[in-house]
């Protein structure tokens, strides 16, 4: 029979159907084995990706920033200069004390630097034992809260080097470091990466997902609220909603006892770390807000900003002219054993000042503040209100506002749900870490808008 005839085609079709039935039986018999192979393949893929990220971020050569000698440097409310001059605060005529560059180095290196880690406990149900390539926003948030805790236990003028420390100060410092160690002990390390990932899982996040500055703020709030360590009983974290700090909510938080706090007298004011998620523009940072950001970094209450640029989260702590001073978590180190009192601390301080242009900053960020007493909170409110509105701006677009209490909810007919991005920048690469979480839409002409909780948001 000639090739291509109907008989030959029918015979070939029959053999094909028989082969498919045999394959189907084999699939049914060995489906469990195939699933195991697929699972092993996924684990191998994760391990290879982790190895690549460990190598990529483990050989970063720290570059030393070059600062101008004719311009002041601001670092979390402190002014430094290579020469002895007096300078007024940004948008203020009040003279500030100017410190030397040696003092700047001591101040900068007293900040706690937290980076990528490898060889940490397995994260949840995943095969990940490192946060390289995806956890830099969590690390940035850890650093900001660590600064707030240093202010709380050791005060603003505490320095890691150059001064004698009491045994109590050493104890507080080591305890703070242990709070952020990558341990699974929730009491000793309430802000560890495994615990933050576990809390994020409750909101739909998985180990290896990208986190935005707003979602990290809420994860840190939940971590503090659930912290059982005795030293955390008199400090809280408040996250602003809809770009608004509600003073009634802050007062209620700071005067209430936690359920696990047995030594609390109701009504006594407790310290608070205030986190304000904002969006300062549309696809890029609106330059009208640069003076506002600079002014906030000159306040004593400011503990920095977490944000960065696309694919690269940073912890901003100061500025000089048009450049921001930051700490960069993109360096992979081996996990540190923090279960004993003899763990090394040098690895937290072997870093150099880094800078980044304001123009490269992603508009989505979270600004942090610390207030120890009610009087400090009132002072923070007054000073901050004066610098939140962009200078020389026709419209009234403050970065965020203060209000006594939330407004009553609008009727259902006036509410529509909105699934909006925390960052409008599109990126699918493995290094993108300013994730597309829930947020408010940018307002007209790139003006500031809010970053609400990571769940569904409503717009009137």
From TrEMBL:
Keywords: Autophagy, Cytoplasm, Hydrolase, Protease, Protein transport, Thiol protease, Transport. It catalyses: [protein]-C-terminal L-amino acid-glycyl-phosphatidylethanolamide + H2O = [protein]-C-terminal L-amino acid-glycine + a 1,2-diacyl-sn-glycero-3-phosphoethanolamine. It is an enzyme of class 3 (hydrolase). This is Cysteine protease. It is found in: Cytoplasm. Its EC number is 3.4.22.-. The keyword Cytoplasm applies.
